[in-house]
Structures are given as C-alpha cells and as structure tokens.
Amino acid sequence: MYDAQPAHKFTFGLWTVGNVGRDPFGEPVRKPLSPPEIVHLLAEVGAWGVNFHDNDLIPIDATPSERDSIIKAFRGALAETGLVVPMATTNLFSHPAFKDGAFTSNDPAVRAYALQKTMAAMDLGAEFGATTYVFWGGREGSESDAAKNPLEGLKWFREALNFLCEYSLAQGYNYRFALEAKPNEPRGDIFLPTTGAMLGFIETLDHSAMVGVNPEVAHETMAGLNFAHAVAQALDAGKLFHIDLNDQASGRYDQDFRFAAHNYKQNFFLVKLLEDVGYDGPRHFDAHAYRSEDLQGVKDFARGCIRSYLILAEKARRFNADAEIQGLLAELKTVEPAVAALAGSYSPERVAALKAHEFDRTGLGARGLGYEKLDQLTFELLMGVR
Ligand code: 3MF
Ligand code: MG
Ligand code: MG
Ligand code: MG
C-alpha cells in the first residue's frame, strides 16, 4: 500500500544516503559508499532518481582519466537499476576557496572560479540528462556586515545567474534553475534567506521565466516560518521547480532529519498541499540518517522518508473524503449568495453594492468558526483513531 511508484518521482542526493555522519564535533561514523553503491542502495529502497553535486560524483582533484572511469561506473549503475538523474548542482561551499561565498565572494577571482566550476558542473549534469539545476548559496553571506555590502552581494549573485542562464541557453541545455534559500548555517547570515525572498529576487533576473525555487522543509523551519505557506507562495507564482523534503526542529542546528521525523502535522499539510495541486516534479529527500546509524539504519532512514510521504498522502486523501471535516469546511464558506457576491474582483457595480450594503459587524464577530473541532479531527485522523 505504501509502495513508491515512478510517478511519485522520489529522489535522493548522493550526499544524503552517502552521508558518513561527520558533524562539527565528531568524526565520520560510517564508511563512505561509492556512487554506484549508492545507486544500488537507492534502487533497493524504491527511489526513482538520484541527484548530485559535481564533487559528490567527481572529486574536486580527480584527473581526467579518473573522471572518465567514475562516469563509466556511475552510468553502468544507472543502467543496471533504471534510476534517472533529474537534478544536478554545484558544490560551492566545501573548498576553502569558498570561505567567503562563491558568486558573492568579495574576491573577483573566487567569483570567476565559481562561474567556471558551475559551467563544468552543468555540463556534467546535462551528460546525465538532468533538467533541473539547483543553486544553494551555501556560503553566500557574511558573519559581519563590516565585511560585505549586501547590495553588492545581490548584484554579483544576479550577474552570475544571468551569466549562467545565458550559458545554459547557448549550450542548448534544457535546464530550469531552482534557487534554494536558507537563513543561516554555515554562515552567520545567508543572503536571500527565505523562499519568499528568492521569489522577489527572481523577478529581477534577465531570464526570470527559467528560474524558480527549491524550498527545503528544514530551511524555512530554521527561520521559524510555516513551510507549507512558503511552498504555497511558490506554487501560486508557478515557481515550484523542485522541493527538498526532510525535517527539522525549529530553533535547532541544521538537522536534515528523515522526512516527517519531527513535525507530523506540518508535514501532513505540506504533503496535502502537494498532492491536492498535483505537483508533478521530483519529490527529493535532502536528509540523512541519524549519526547513530550503520548501513542498515541508512536503509531504514531512506525507506522511512518514502513511506512517511506515502502515509501522509493517504491521510490527505482521507482528510478530503472525511464527511465531517469537509462539512465543517463547507459550513465556513456558507453565507447568503447576495452577501457572498459582494467579495470579488473590482467592478463599478461591486463598488456600488459594497457602499450600499450594511454589514452585521457584531454578528460577524460573534460567529464561532469551529477550528478547535477541525484541528482535533485532523489530529485524530493523523493518529489513526479516525
Ligand atoms: C544545505 C542544503 C544543500 C542543498 C544542496 C543543493 C547539501 O542545507 O540543503 O544540501 O540542498 O546543495 O541541492
Ligand atoms: Mg539543507
Ligand atoms: Mg542541511
Ligand atoms: Mg537542500
């Protein structure tokens, strides 16, 4: 019943199940897996696709012949398993050269190197058929505003994206760019810290139609925001090009927990939103297993991400089919047709009707909305007692 279908497009990054459990205070706890091993592991747990940063696949210091043999082995694993590569991205954060950011580094040489590295990574992604290219500004920010002018940072970031859009078009790549916001970590502050900020910025780009967003559960949650609302804004703008599913407790370090490991209710509303609108992009898990886990735990983690999504999708169907819940929702919107017709788009007739209407302000304020009951019914549905 909770089996992944290709239509769900469940994907994982090489860096997710490949995470070795290093953190700022501790050494790795798991052995690294090679890209072909990861592809086979993902096939075993039911994934449809695999995504990568350039250096997840090809080490930054690989020789051309090493590159060729890695690509050959990876291609072989994809052919054996049928996994696809829908998304690619650039690692612009691990190497010390990027300590002050990449496209927004104060150093022009670093900004130029970031362009060169991204073009090469776009070439690599295109070789594997990727159609979404993600930009997460890992270190595009600052610790001290003494060091960087945010206006310059935005200008440089725009220049880089305009350049790379042109490059994608000139190469005939089929890329849509997806910008991923994060409020902080690993920088004190990261520019364009929320999905809403990215959506505003996109409209300032030369090729704004080919640029959308890749919101991540953990990132909006770190900022104390409602993730489903951020996704709704992206959907409303026609800009939900990709999504990073994981989980996070508000106010904590960047946790990247298994999808829905923490906020069951918030993630239920997220899944319901995606399912209700028929989102047909990849459902990408950008998460990793707890540091307590061995290889078996990594598989449990990956299967858990998929299964939790499908369980919440099933709950969303039940919510939509629940007569009592739907009755409460319908009741909320039931008013006299003449009054309902007063709300809507501008017209001289509506202006006249509004000016002439006398509202029962006291009655409006006195009306109970039934949200306590609605929320309790939702909780009971989620807990399986309904
Ligand atoms: C960091 C992230 C990143 C991005 C990735 C692009 C390492 O918090 O979320 O994962 O998602 O760089 O997809
Ligand atoms: Mg993240
Ligand atoms: Mg993270
Ligand atoms: Mg992410």
SSE order and pairing:
Elements: E1 10-13, H1 14-17, H2 35-45, E2 49-53, H3 54-57, H4 64-81, E3 87-89, H5 108-127, E4 132-136, E5 141-142, H6 150-171, E6 176-180, E7 189-190, H7 195-202, E8 211-213, H8 217-222, H9 227-236, E9 244-245, H10 264-276, E10 283-285, H11 295-321, H12 323-332, H13 337-340, H14 348-356, H15 361-366, H16 371-382
Parallel strand pairs: 1-2, 1-10, 2-3, 3-4, 4-6, 6-8, 9-10
Antiparallel strand pairs: 5-7
Helix pairs in contact: 2-4, 5-6, 9-10, 10-11
Keyword list:
two-stranded antiparallel sheet, 386 residues, binds 3-O-methylfructose in linear form, alpha/beta, cytoplasm, Xylose_isomerase, eight-stranded parallel β-sheet, 9% strand, TIM Barrel, 48% helix, single chain
Descriptive account of the structure:
By secondary structure, the protein is α/β, with parallel strands linked by helices. It folds into 2 domains: 6-321, TIM Barrel (Alpha-Beta Barrel); 323-383, no CATH class. 48% of the residues lie in helices and 9% in strands. It is globular. 3-O-methylfructose in linear form (3MF) binds next to strand 4. Homotetramer. Its EC number is 5.3.1.5. Mg(2+) 1 binds at residues 180, 216, 244, 286. Belongs to the xylose isomerase family.
